[in-house]
UniProtKB/TrEMBL annotation, chain A:
Membrane-spanning intervals of the chain: 25-48, 60-77, 97-116, 155-179, 207-229, 250-268, 288-307, 319-339, 345-365, 372-393, 413-442, 454-478, 498-520
InterPro entries per record: NADH-Q_OxRdtase_suN/2, ND/Mrp_TM
Subcellular location: Cell membrane; Endomembrane system; Membrane
Main EC class the enzyme belongs to: translocase
Self-association and partners: NDH-1 is composed of 14 different subunits. Subunits NuoA, H, J, K, L, M, N constitute the membrane sector of the complex.
Protein name per the record: NADH-quinone oxidoreductase subunit N
Annotated catalysed reactions: a quinone + NADH + 5 H(+)(in) = a quinol + NAD(+) + 4 H(+)(out)
Function description: NDH-1 shuttles electrons from NADH, via FMN and iron-sulfur (Fe-S) centers, to quinones in the respiratory chain. The immediate electron acceptor for the enzyme in this species is believed to be a menaquinone. Couples the redox reaction to proton translocation (for every two electrons transferred, four hydrogen ions are translocated across the cytoplasmic membrane), and thus conserves the redox energy in a proton gradient.
Domain NADH:quinone oxidoreductase/Mrp antiporter transmembrane: 169-462
PANTHER family: NADH DEHYDROGENASE
EC number(s) reported in the record: 7.1.1.-
TrEMBL record, chain B:
UniProt source species: Actinokineospora diospyrosa
Main location as per UniProt: membrane
Protein name: NADH dehydrogenase subunit L
One Pfam family recorded for the sequence: Proton_antipo_N
Chain ranges of the NADH:quinone oxidoreductase/Mrp antiporter transmembrane domain: 156-442
């Protein structure tokens, strides 16, 4: 207690952000651990003999996440309520940032478990040697081999580190660097699938090209905003926008470009076009990681930019983001209806969810913030478990993702069909699942902030989206199984753990969400 | 019984805290839910005794419901509304939602109906589903339904009600699609789910409106605050709640799913789609009586009455034209719920009457459905009434119990329907002025039609010549009608006793008993005295039945359905174009939107975006040369979106 009060006193006595003093390390230990372990992981890759790499990498990744989590928890227990800056004012460690870090660490635990699994696909879902050209004799040989590219672990850790920096970035340049740190590993990871490598590599290239395109938007936006405010710090931009007679064209053009860059990462329509192809092509564990963690990081960034830097101009941009949210919900809900591939369907579902999340993000209230943070948590866990289940339904050529192959699955494997049904109901937002609570708090916040028409659209969109989840349930339960249908693999310990984790959290946050809502609402963006 | 002494005193907002035996009210939810969990998780191991466990949990809930009922009757009228707090579900900042139960006369009435009829139907299902390999799973779903339905009626806030609301929808959906091999079952299940979603959106919007304007959805707060709201808010909430009720209760314009839902097993039709779930809409409106009774809600109540009147007519008319045993009964249900909705739309003069009709209807309609199930069970699942006939001698118990239910439904003097339906018709006449004449006239005319189509059903199924003797069922078997076993006949007998006696017993007691929940039953006097209305109704029903006898009883009926018929019959056979209407309203715009978006997504992106981009100095051309394949069009769509976003931002700023 005394420590906390003295920290508080210190924070009060020094209103100006520290310029030259040594960075307070205690706040950013989780980031340091993750990035440090990522470097160590690269060394493992270079120095360890081949047969030791997989166990060493898995152990390191899991230990890293656990250690970062422990550090985070110990820090949270006596973190200053007003937050603090670190790394010379480039990182803002406040309550939302801490919540997002916790969410990211928990979700990446699930994703790493899926990535590490080698029982579902013998040797793992990742290619043994990514450089071999698809379709060649060597390539066919390596499908049968049991090795795997263990570089995926350092890549995951780097991406995770980038995401954590991204949602705590206090200025736009740090945010851009973090964006690249999280994106580049993801581009690579998308191309590492053992099966259907052409599709996977195509997805990687598409994601890279479009990602680079979006980064350019982001960077151009940063440049324009710097031109406007003379600083890249979020707080300075806010100050400049609140009271200045400078030309607003720079501000709004810059703001638009910046927001587009962010919306791309969050897969909000109409900037979603990469999502279905990439979700479908990437190895399923990577899709899970992308769908859950990237969404969290991107919306963390969006929340911070909107609430800290752009709050004073909200009446100008709000209407535009209304439109974007509606487009995203409609595209996601309607196009999801016609999908025949289960991974593409979940991709469109994620576009619709991005629309719902955007509604929460543009409600610039405490409720909007906490609701969106909570929604991210629930959506992430449900998604990881969903992709975990998808990875189990296989035929001789790998995963059986075509919906017709899921017909009558409930007869073959009632447990798997039951779990998947539960997860789909959570995505649809049926009560007593976390999806319902998430939608409930977000819509409630939006309504309280005067966005009733948007909530009406959202409710209709979620009713429409419920239909395509339902279609899968109908297929699984009410159709005759195909004669040469897929088999359901008995998952190994890792995948079982990931799915169980996702399902339990989905149920728990549906039945007793109070504690997580308390965390999500424990504070607002304090560093301004 | 310690519950009689209330030590806790009143809560701040009116409801008493539950004490004593009422503290265990959560058992009502947990017993059936636990049954469902054991049966679903236990899998094949529980096949042998699963149906017994399923029935036992519901009977247990019924017994506890009875204990609770007598515990409550021992209290004074002012102490009969009690709350049982379960736990804080969401509590964050200003948003707080508790899960709690409301034990009052209204909810207890429903508890007894749900668990009572539910128990009988569970017992009946033991016999009816004895040939089904998955009987255990069937009982698990039934238990799930009972639990969700109890949550719906017991919740003490609209959010809790919404939980149960979605839960019963899900269980109903699983049960409609029970016969997985048949295509129409899956289609019917989907249709039910979708049309219910339309209603659910209405209910969800009403709930959000309550949050926005009153900061809570608990009954206590909402009903205390609703009087201070503007007329617009009250009417909006009233109409949105009605939309929810229309979805769940098969009211116009969302009635088309209910007859299709008959694709499910007959016990399901009886329990869910006749006696309990479809009456949830009536419950919702009766529960919201403090809202609908307000002077500001006059318009909303008027809409409720219109919907009820339209639906009761639609149901009767279509019921006259169908040849499927269960579908006629289904449309009859639609029309009877129309009567209930009309009644609760009348306001204080009608809430108790609506609930009374709901209860009597629960008895006789469940009995009629079980009778239909018994006939089909003995006739190789034949449901086409033109292929039945003359079954009275083969199935005497079914015939007698069914006839008692039939008489109750058409309002034969001093049976159940006579007390409940006539009271509604009389109250409708009293609505005042021309309005009263219109609604009363419709309700009266509906009674005549009801007698007509029900008599037609009776004649074609049980009387006349056995037309099935020379026919074979679809699977090539000859018909050997036989009476069903005791697990099926005993529930039918019990329900038929209820059909005979429930009206007389309940009509005197129910209004007083429900007073703490829905207020005093207002005495209204219309242009016609109650006796006059009764005589009129009985007379018109008699005419309807006589016409049916004249048309169907004298001549021999063809086995196939006549095709050359007049336009009203054609319209009625086509559900009065209800499906067409729904398709035009909901399905077709959706299909068009989907096609349009798919087109834009697959091929049109280039076109749409090129248009914008070309206008910006041919930059699209350069970009197109830089990239190949689909990425090109993706990038273009992003560019187009960005241009739109920036242009819009600048326009908002400088316009």
């Amino acid at each position: 207690m005394s420590l906390m009060s003295s920290v508080l006193l210190l924070a009060q006595e020094q209103p100006a952000p520290p310029k030259v003093e040594a960075p307070p390390v205690s706040a950013i230990w989780p980031i340091l651990i993750v990035l440090g372990a990522a470097c160590l992981s690269v060394l493992f890759e270079a120095l360890l003999p081949k047969h030791l790499r997989w166990p060493a990498q898995v152990t390191l990744a899991l230990l890293t996440i656990a250690a970062a989590g422990v550090k985070l928890v110990t820090y949270v227990s006596d973190a200053p309520a007003a937050g603090e800056t670190a790394m010379f004012g480039t990182l803002a460690v406040d309550r939302p940032a801490l919540f997002l870090w916790g969410t990211l660490l928990a979700l990446s635990l699930g994703a790493v478990l899926l990535i590490a699994d080698r029982s579902v696909e013998p040797g793992g879902a990742f290619v043994a040697s990514a450089a071999i050209r698809p379709g060649t004799i060597q390539d066919r040989a390596q499908v049968a081999s049991t090795g795997m590219q263990t570089e995926v672990f350092p890549l995951t850790l780097f991406a995770l580190g980038g995401m954590m920096v991204f949602c705590a970035a206090n200025d736009l340049l740090t945010m851009f660097v973090a964006l690249e740190v999280l994106s580049l590993p993801l581009y690579l990871m998308c191309g590492l699938a053992r099966r259907r490598r052409l599709l996977s590599q195509e997805a990687a290239v598409k994601y890279f090209l479009l990602g680079a395109f979006a980064s350019a938007f982001f960077l151009y936006g940063v440049a324009l905003l710097y031109g406007y405010a003379g600083s890249v710090r979020l707080a300075d931009i806010a100050e400049a926008a609140a009271g200045s007679d400078r030309s607003d064209t720079l501000l709004f053009a810059g703001m638009g470009l910046l927001v587009v860059g962010l919306l791309f990462k969050a897969a909000v329509g109409p900037f979603h076009t990469w999502t279905p192809d990439v979700y479908q092509g990437a190895p399923t564990p990577v899709t899970a990681f992308m769908a859950a963690c990237t969404k969290v990081a991107a919306f963390g960034g969006i929340l911070r930019v909107l609430q800290v830097a752009l709050e004073s101009t909200q009446w100008e941009w709000r209407g535009v983001l209304w439109g974007v949210a509606i487009v995203s919900m409609v595209i996601g809900a309607v196009l999801g209806l016609t999908q025949t591939d289960v991974k593409r369907m979940i991709a469109y579902s994620s576009v619709a969810h991005a629309g719902f999340l955007l509604i929460g993000s543009i409600a610039l209230t405490e409720k909007g913030l906490s609701g969106t943070l909570f929604y991210l948590l629930t959506y992430g866990f449900t998604t990881i478990a969903t992709f975990g289940v998808i990875s189990l339904v296989r035929d001789s050529s790998g995963e059986a993702t075509h919906l017709s192959q899921w017909a009558g699955l409930a007869k073959r494997s009632p447990l798997l069909a039951g779990v998947f049904t539960f997860l789909l109901l959570a995505l649809a937002g049926i009560p007593l699942t976390s999806g319902f609570v998430g939608k409930f708090v977000v819509f409630e916040a939006a309504l309280a902030d005067g966005m009733a028409p948007l909530v009406v659209v959202a409710l209709i969109a979620s009713a429409v989206a419920a239909f395509f989840y339902l279609r899968v349930i109908v297929l699984m339960y009410f159709s005759e199984p195909a004669a040469d249908g897929p088999t359901v693999t008995v998952p190994g310990a890792f995948t079982t753990a990931a799915i169980t984790l996702g399902v339990i959290v989905t149920l728990l946050l549906g039945v007793a969400p109070a504690f997580a809502l308390d965390w999500a609402s424990s504070g607002v963006f304090a560093i301004r | 019984m310690t519950g009689t002494i209330n030590l806790a005193g009143t809560l701040a907002d009116g409801a008493q805290q539950a004490t004593g035996v009422a503290n265990l009210a959560w058992l009502l939810l947990v017993l059936p839910a636990a049954g469902a969990a054991v049966l679903l998780i236990g899998g094949r191991r529980t096949d042998k005794w699963g149906h017994l466990l399923g029935s036992a949990t519901v009977i247990g809930a019924f017994v506890y419901g009875l204990v609770l009922f007598f515990d409550t009757t021992a209290l004074g009228a002012d102490d009969r509304t009690r709350d049982l707090h379960l736990f804080d579900w969401i509590s964050v900042n200003s948003l707080s939602v508790d899960l709690g139960l409301r034990l009052d006369p209204l909810s207890l009435t429903f508890v007894l109906l749900i668990t009572g009829v539910g128990s009988l139907i569970h017992i009946y299902s033991i016999g009816y589903m004895s040939d089904d390999r998955d009987r255990r799973r069937f009982f698990a779903y039934l238990n799930l339904f009972v639990s969700a339905m109890l949550l719906l009626v017991l919740g003490n806030s609209f959010v809790t009600l919404y939980f149960g609301w979605e839960g019963v929808g899900l269980a109903s959906y699983l049960l409609i699609g029970w016969y997985q091999g048949k295509d129409f079952a899956a289609t019917a299940a989907k249709k039910a789910f979708l049309m219910n979603r339309v209603g659910d959106v209405g209910l969800a919007l009403a709930i959000f409106l309550m949050f926005k304007h009153m900061g809570s959805t608990s009954y206590d707060v909402v009903f205390a605050e609703i009087g201070n709201q503007s007329t617009g808010v009250v009417v909006a909430i009233g109409i949105l709640l009605l939309l929810g009720a229309c979805g769940k209760s098969g009211q116009f314009p969302l009635q088309a799913w209910l007859p299709d839902a008959m694709a499910g097993p007959t016990p399901v039709s009886a329990l869910i789609h006749a006696a309990t779930m479809v009456t949830a809409g009536v419950y919702l409106i009766a529960r919201s009586s403090p809202l609908y009774s307000l002077a500001q809600a006059e318009d909303a109540r008027f809409v409720v009455m219109i919907i009820g009147a339209i639906t009761l007519l639609i149901g009767c008319v279509i019921g006259c034209a169908y040849d499927d045993f269960k579908k006629v009964l289904a449309y009859s249900t639609v029309s009877q719920i129309g009567y209930m909705i009309l009644a609760v739309g009348l306001g204080p003069a009608g809430y108790a009457l609506g609930i009374l009709h709901l209860l009597t209807h629960g008895f006789f309609k469940a009995g009629l459905f079980l009778g239909a199930g018994s006939v089909m069970h003995g006739m190789n699942d034949e449901g086409d009434i033109r292929r039945l006939g003359g079954l009275a001698k083969k199935m005497p118990i079914t015939f007698i119990t069914w006839t008692l239910g039939y008489l109750a439904l058409i309002g034969f003097p001093f049976l159940s329907g006579y007390f409940s339906k006539d009271a509604i018709i009389s109250a409708a006449f009293s609505a005042g002025g021309g309005r009263g004449w219109v609604f009363g006239g419709i309700a009266l005319f509906g009674a005549g039609l009801t007698a007509f189509y029900m008599t037609r059903l009776l004649i074609l199924v049980f009387l006349g010549k056995p037309r099935w003797e020379k026919l074979k069922s679809e699977d090539g078997r000859a018909y050997h009608p036989h009476e069903s076993g005791p697990t099926m006949t005993i529930p039918m007998i019990i329900l038929s006793i209820g059909s005979v006696a429930a009206g007389a017993i309940l009509s005197g007691m129910l209004p007083g008993w429900l007073e703490p929940s829905v207020g005093e039953l207002a005495e209204v006097h219309g242009p016609l005295s109650h006796t006059a209305v009764s005589i009129l109704t009985v007379g018109i029903s008699a005419i309807g039945a006589a016409i049916a006898f004249a048309v169907f009883g004298r001549r021999e009926q063809p086995v196939t359905r006549p095709q050359r018929v007049s336009w009203p019959v054609r319209a009625a056979r086509a559900d009065l174009y209800g499906n067409h209407l729904n398709e035009a309203l909901f399905a077709r715009p959706g299909v068009w939107l989907t096609r349009f978006l798919v087109f834009v997504d697959n091929r049109g992106v280039d076109g749409v975006v090129n248009g914008i981009a070309a206008g910006l100095g041919g930059s699209s051309g350069r970009l197109r040369r830089l990239q190949t394949g689909f990425v090109r069009s993706y990038a273009l769509s992003m560019l187009g979106g960005s241009i739109l976003v920036i242009a819009a931002l600048l326009m908002v700023r400088f316009a």
